[in-house]
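Quick one: co-fold with adenosine-5'-diphosphate.
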Amino acid sequence: MPGRLFPLGGPVSEKDIVDRAEFLSSLERRLTEGQSIMLAGPRRIGKTSLALEVIRRIKSNEHYVAFVDLFRYNTKRELSLAIINACLENRSGISKTTAALKDGLKKITGAAKLTAKLQDLEVAFGLPSESKSDDELFNYALELSEVLAQKDKKHMILVFDEFQEVVRIAGEEALKVMRSYFQVHQHVAYLFLGSKEGMMNTIFGDKRQAFYRFATILPIPSVPSEAWVEYITGKFQAQTITLNDRVISEILTLSGGHPQDTMLLCSEIYYSLLEAGVKNLSLDFVRLGYERALLSLSPVFDELLDELGSLGNSRRVLVSLAKGLHIYSGLSGNPNDIKRAVDLLIDKAIIEKTGRGAYQFVEPMLKDYLNRRIEGY
Ligand SMILES: Nc1ncnc2c1ncn2[C@@H]1O[C@H](COP(=O)(O)OP(=O)(O)O)[C@@H](O)[C@H]1O
Ligand SMILES: [Mg+2]
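Sure, here it is.
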């Protein structure tokens, strides 16, 4: 199946990563120099795409790379096996080395090659075995990156996506254990990504926390509109669809340049044109695509609003902001509580401050969605 014109819903490949060229080179440079990095930002802004692209660029004769997505795991044992497999793949060339080792005796031919590839490791450091306890396996996993890099005279980049999930998977204590290993590693640079910004900032920025000052915290730049204009124009023109600046500027006003919202909007516009058999993108089609995009975002927005509903005043404050009220004069309630709600909304990157007492929605589509549903709150 040919890929979608505007990719959606997961990490995108290099040709569809709009802008980010400078940021990617900076990440690449820092990581290859051995610096560990932390990137926090809400979901759907392109963190995973960035990480996968940077390791794709770095993987080479001098560099090993490994990627572990913590959303996928529920127990310390699963997490340990994931780290071990991601590290060993650099040697074994297969993604599930631990499973292959376990099955080894049954499939002698492949196993012999695999054993040969891992023999020196087995002698010096042991192999991950079933008989290890959860904690033993965890410790093994945390030491493995450095052992492997050292043995093979490589530099290694280990990425943890959705790193804040460690706490859910293995408890707060696990953070301390991880740091105690990582901080003595000389051949490994770590890239930590997380979509729960509050937790990420605490883990890496709070003096009492295990990862305090372990990684350089970088802000993820937004995609500038010129880059979007170029990308969107190019994509539609490649399909021989004509469009003018006014139309693109409307698209970007509606999406606010938010990475996934913009992609989604363009995608829905494109399908509307296809279905109608029209080759000229007019404002009417922008509006049609917009309605469809908003509809398809509604489950995402509902989930977010549900989550906020359980967090004090934050949903009420957000609704007031959508209505355009001045939150301190326009809302009843204790100003400290309101301030706390505002801070939480900023922390979750739902709104951003634009001046004294002035805030705006990071996703204009969420604002519009709220306004349309406002009677419900
Ligand atoms: N730089 C970018 N250029 C274009 N689209 C992007 C970019 N970054 C993200 N996207 C869009 O956002 C979606 C989610 O990207 P992803 O990397 O999974 O984000 P995250 O890891 O922050 O949740 C992609 O499928 C794509 O539609
Ligand atoms: Mg992601």
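If it helps, The chain is about 55% helix and 10% strand.
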